[in-house]
Amino acid sequence: MPQLTSCQYGKDNIRVAKVDKDSHTGVQTVYEMTVCVLLEGQIGTSYTNADNSVIVPTDTMKQTTYIFAKQYPVHPPELFAAILSNHFIQTYKHISSATVNVITHRWTRMELDGQLHPHSFLRDGAETRNTVAVAKENHGITVKSAIAGLLVLKTTGSAFHGFVQDEYTILQETNDRILSTEVDCSWTWKTFDNLAAVQKEVPKFDPAWNFARNITLKTFAQDASASVQNTMYKMCEQILGADSTVDSVDYTLPNKHYFEIDLSWHKGLKNTGKDAEVYAPQSNPNGLIQCTVNRPEN
């Protein structure tokens, strides 16, 4: 007889915006999020026996997200995700695990005539700040913070040579090339015993995110890159070294290729090597480089 071996369900793409209003200064701050909630637990009979009595409706998850956004801080997102995930396992005893994924979209305060505007913002890129919190019965809360969609490019300072070459290889070695990627960087904090432990660490979340972003940008720009692999490992080392409560760091860096265009067919026009100025941006296929670096076990 077939056996149900795993199942989860939830509400995806819950769009939420919150405006924090400081009545003393008149300054307002906007946060816009896309939230996903997924539940696991003793819900198998809803699949196998059409037993809806174990189902927390996905609309309830959506309404709970709205209510909690009103009642609790949504920033930092690590805290909001932990509060929301913890709620579901505490409220519904047959739910043993709740995963909350929060994508925070950019709204950057406008600067006008050298002054930050109190209530006007601009979307200055597709980069997002992401968080996943997983609350598990008797296993605490795990939190992962992330940077996603950060598009970067440098026009020099990247090489790639010494790689495997055989009868299938036509790629030429290079000592200098354009390097571009869309950064997806995440770091997993050591497991928190409970929600109170997450709340205690709230002061760390924003500085850690800013530090990881700065390290990513600085290392990308300044490293004399021998390969994307080596550069991303250097990024991981620095993030792990900055905070002992971070357990592991992950990077995914797809190569955004810019190929030199040989224009020598047109009157001997030089546009390769040191003479390259005009490139053809490529969409796909592309290289995809990933790594996970863990803190050494004591």
Describe the protein in words.
There is one protein chain. The chain has 298 residues and is of the alpha+beta class. 26% of the residues lie in helices and 36% in strands. The protein is built from six helices and twelve strands. It has helices at 44-48, 58-71, 77-91, 195-200, 202-222, 228-242; strands at residues 9-21, 28-41, 95-105, 108-112, 115-122, 128-136, 140-154, 179-189, 246-254, 258-260, 279-281, 288-294. The strands form three sheets. It has an eight-stranded antiparallel beta sheet with strand order 1-2-3-6-7-8-9-12. The longest helix has 21 residues, at 202-222. The model has no long low-confidence stretch (mean pLDDT 97).
Shape: globular
Give the biggest sheet: 8 strands, antiparallel
Give the SSE string: EEHHHEEEEEEHHHEEEE
- Given helix and strand content, the structural type is alpha+beta
Rg over alpha carbons: 24 Å
Compute the separation of the termini in Å: 46 Å
Number of strands: 12
Give the quaternary arrangement of the chains: single chain
Q: Give the strand order, joined by hyphens, for the main sheet.
A: 1-2-3-6-7-8-9-12
Q: Mean pLDDT score, rounded?
A: 97
Report the helical percentage: 25-40%
